[in-house]
Amino acid sequence: MKNTLIRDLFLKPEAYIESEIKVSGWIRTTRSSKTFGFIELNDGTYFNNLQIVFDDGLENFADIEKCSIASSLIITGTLIATPNAKQPFELKAKEIVVEGYSTPEFPLQKKRHTMEYLRTIAHLRPRSNTFSAVFRVRSAAAFAIHKFFQDRGFVYVHTPIVTGSDAEGAGQMFRVTTLDLENLPVDDENKFDPTQDFFGKETNLTVSGQLEAETFALAFRDVYTFGPTFRAENSNTKRHAAEFWMIEPEIAFADLTDNMSLAEDMVKYIIAYVLETCPEEMKFFNERIDKGLMDRLSHVLNSDFGKVTYTEAVDALINSGEVFEYPVFWGADLQTEHERYLTEVIYKKPVFVINYPKEIKSFYMRMNEDQKTVAAMDLLVPGVGELIGGSQREERLDLLIDRIKELGLNEEDYWWYLELRKFGTTRHAGYGLGFERMIMYLTGMGNIRDVIPFPRTVKNAEF
Amino acid sequence: MKNTLIRDLFLKPEAYIESEIKVSGWIRTTRSSKTFGFIELNDGTYFNNLQIVFDDGLENFADIEKCSIASSLIITGTLIATPNAKQPFELKAKEIVVEGYSTPEFPLQKKRHTMEYLRTIAHLRPRSNTFSAVFRVRSAAAFAIHKFFQDRGFVYVHTPIVTGSDAEGAGQMFRVTTLDLENLPVDDENKFDPTQDFFGKETNLTVSGQLEAETFALAFRDVYTFGPTFRAENSNTKRHAAEFWMIEPEIAFADLTDNMSLAEDMVKYIIAYVLETCPEEMKFFNERIDKGLMDRLSHVLNSDFGKVTYTEAVDALINSGEVFEYPVFWGADLQTEHERYLTEVIYKKPVFVINYPKEIKSFYMRMNEDQKTVAAMDLLVPGVGELIGGSQREERLDLLIDRIKELGLNEEDYWWYLELRKFGTTRHAGYGLGFERMIMYLTGMGNIRDVIPFPRTVKNAEF
């Protein structure tokens, strides 16, 4: 008999009720009396378990009764509707075959575990309700992002992970090398010689694919990246990991307004997609992880995102009379406390803050006419603060070179980036969405370590 | 007036013919006489160009006439059907605004360039026909893969890029470090101390996400990875890059037959999807890159993939009487020449070779009853040779430990991998598809450097 997925039972029960079916999966819980027992079976294809009823009519009843949590079973039986019970149906077992036994040492017994402990068993935690929900939502959200951009004709570009340039200057990088650290090569003057490394020079892990994505935007018009990025920052916070995934769309013949419009559409699309495809998981998060979650997400879906300038935002913060840990003044970078106050208290909805002082933003952002601010945008959302950061890019060669010099960067390092401005430059814009931050936002999970399958942080690269 | 994408003109011309529209894009070619001119405009959204007709009725006629290739333009005009011309329609320009000038130094002038030269301008080559087609097909194929697995309920899992274990032992790895190579830390005995590195130990770039994917398969049943992987091999061939993307599905309650069935469905799905969504690009490849391409792909689509054992394949090669560079005997690894002979000459279609001698395969592959072969599978396809490699995994704890010991591996390094076999083990299987090899197969491109946006190979990490 063909195996039936538990997902299919829940999505179209009418096709299976009163039929004999075969299912397979892992025991989540089990209990029994002398003559009968119940098993909650999960086969990984659906958040909910299938209830199995078995009795001593089974010739291996004594064996099944003793099966530990996590044991894998193959069960043949009849699906019975149970309109008066908690679950809509149950499987009356005719035959149960043990595929693989577990033991009482299985760490995920039916009790509460701390998130910290669960991180130490990252190879098993996807078998818990919480992480089963987190990683299914992560998968759905990833696909939503691809579908959103592909439906609009965007070209997906794999920008390089190993990079020879520290072009964006966005923080500490990891070095990539094949040199033997215990026997480093030296040059004629007995100094360390990086040219003998695999790539013939120093290379690092990328912090952003933006600059490379721009080259593709000036060929394909609308492109996006979706890949891993890295920060070697020695910071141990709930929101930072050394390895995370990022989405970076880049659009040509487009300005900051087009960029905001794209970001708003994308965020709403991801939320709507996940609510539709993962209803059981989202219900679980709303009940068990973050009781305000569904209200917050619905509110975002139904809001027109606001738009204020940095100058207006700073004025509003100053005029609010609120006392902040970090002082607010024109020229200061906004901290999470400011960002959350703006989106949660003042504007009460997602809001784009645009036109930041050039001093606190990157060299590639387009200079505004005031010569003081650049066409940057940060999207702030309730509950999180900054979700997206982006900008219109400086497409004017002379102004871009001015900024590179002003910041003391090496013009030669940007030869190919500058050539984009020599050969048919166009207005263009783009932004970055940290994928894990989006997952935290969608699920209410409070620590980035709990939305990454095998997180990499300071002093931690287990598994 | 709103901008119209050139893609939309080609996909539904009837909606635009005789209408006034605005388009924007880059000049691919331009020619003019005293009073009128033609521009082939590409806006990146479609493979084909839009022909623009302009004349001296434009007040900036002299300027437009002189515009170099690659200049970006915004053009308003009327779309006219041209049933007797090569192109189905053209745009009669009423106004042309130059968004960004180019110069005659633009390297992609209208002449043949070598692939080698084009690699040196990887930031500009997507503006050529060949690379516009390659990278759009790459994007479409990536989405096809996600869609194939998501439609079947597979969970997409991001396995780690930085790894603390050389668990698979699949070749040379790149080290990841934040240590200052000119000032390495030492321990009390003045020996190099890797514990002072960012992650507290030696870490490397992953060669495969398989082992981690298995942990998720034993929770979600059907999962897949799609991410970058790395090989630090000092080999300078047309088929190897230091950084490439790989797809690794892993399925639980499944054996080698299920695995082959999944691989066959996937390959056919990707081909069908790309043929349907990129017809112009595929026509281009078939005409300009590889004249046998479409026939070969159609043949694969319409073949039931074959299945032979390694032992049968070796016999067939020996009995063929063909003289090979590498000798064929039972126990030898199959070389590309053998693989291609099998799929192209002997079986004349895609063929799975299964049950390889355990000596030439990895420790995690499931031991067959003969105790000599393991449940491995390689998919060989005409024109390429090996496209996919996979296996049923050893789910029996004792046999897995035996193999680990037999190969002299360190059992402790695999503690979490072994635990999967202790707590509800199940039959499971999976395979790896090298994404670039699939793109080469789909496009007929002969060098892996020409299907990666910014390839990384020995001594090369430019851009």
UniProtKB/TrEMBL annotation, chains A, B:
Pfam families per UniProt: tRNA-synt_2, tRNA_anti-codon
Class in the EC hierarchy, top level: ligase
HAMAP family: Asn_tRNA_synth (MF_00534)
InterPro entries registered for this protein in UniProt: Aa-tRNA-synt_II, aa-tRNA-synth_II, aa-tRNA-synth_II/BPL/LPL, Asn-tRNA-ligase, Asp/Asn-tRNA-synth_IIb, NA-bd_OB-fold, NA-bd_OB_tRNA
PANTHER family associated with the record: ASPARAGINE--TRNA LIGASE, MITOCHONDRIAL-RELATED, ASPARTYL/LYSYL-TRNA SYNTHETASE
Species per Swiss-Prot/TrEMBL record: Fusibacter bizertensis
UniProt subcellular location: Cytoplasm
Enzyme Commission code(s) on record: 6.1.1.22
Domain Aminoacyl-transfer RNA synthetases class-II family profile: 135-453
Gene from which the chain derives: asnS
Record bears the keyword Protein biosynthesis: yes
Catalyzed chemical reaction(s): tRNA(Asn) + L-asparagine + ATP = L-asparaginyl-tRNA(Asn) + AMP + diphosphate + H(+)
Quaternary structure and interacting proteins, as annotated: Homodimer.
Keywords: Aminoacyl-tRNA synthetase, ATP-binding, Cytoplasm, Ligase, Nucleotide-binding, Protein biosynthesis
Primary location group: cytoplasm
CDD domains associated with the record: AsxRS_core, EcAsnRS_like_N
GO molecular function, one term: asparagine-tRNA ligase activity
Protein known as: Asparagine--tRNA ligase
Annotated Gene3D superfamilies: Bira Bifunctional Protein, Domain 2 (3.30.930.10), Nucleic acid-binding proteins (2.40.50.140)
Keyword Protein transport: no
